[in-house]
Amino acid sequence: MVAEGTIEAGEEQGQEDRATSIQAIAAGIAHEVRNPLNALRINLGILEQELSEIVPDRRRHVFEVIGKIAGELRSLDNFVAEFLRFARPPLPALETVTVRSLFEDLVGFIGPECSGKGVSLSLVADGGPATIVADPFQVKHAVLNLVLNALQATPAGGAIVIGLGGDDRTLVLEVRDTGEGMDPAVLSRAFDAFFTTREGGTGLGLPIARRIAEAHGGRLVLRSRVGEGTVATASLPAVRGA
User: Fold this and answer.
1) Which label site among 89, 153, 174, 222 has the fewest CB atoms less than 10 Å from its CB?
2) Whole-angstrom Cα distance, residue 216 to residue 57?
């Protein structure tokens, strides 16, 4: 008799084979979508250039339409990129990362977008390791997804705080917002791929963030209450295998 929750020999290989198949399908879909996307972008650029020679006034409505088309093409390309990160996540390229400067760079990058929407973004360090062994691009991408989710849920006048804490062995990172929060039904599905309550959202930001945390030997959890905001807490080991 096999104990409940265990995997028999062969079943694990079957899961690996299915994962490989999903990755191959994802790569094929991305290839088939991105080729026409690139062609559309190139031809739209040619159209815009030729049109500007005929209609020099860039304030004309037709240029607004071209801008909207270009924006939709960028959104679709971004979705394909996010889909690939979810279906075929790369292994972390580990290096020693200075924690404070990594997140200061992140705040400097996304801060203007938050300010433009009337939301304050701040970094508060209350301890934790000075350095961690991690993939800086992946960690920054995961936290950027958390901040963007918080920004979507936080009205003007609200605040988002990135908190750093923990001890010498573990970095505890929190992204707290004063947004609308989630009810239990939405919270229970927050990590489901493609689940979103936002118009135009991909539903991949949180699943990708959790995968990145887990790929680094850590975890990501959410706490939320309607009307009080959301707290996303990631715990990452400072040293690989710690």
Assistant:
1) 89
2) 52
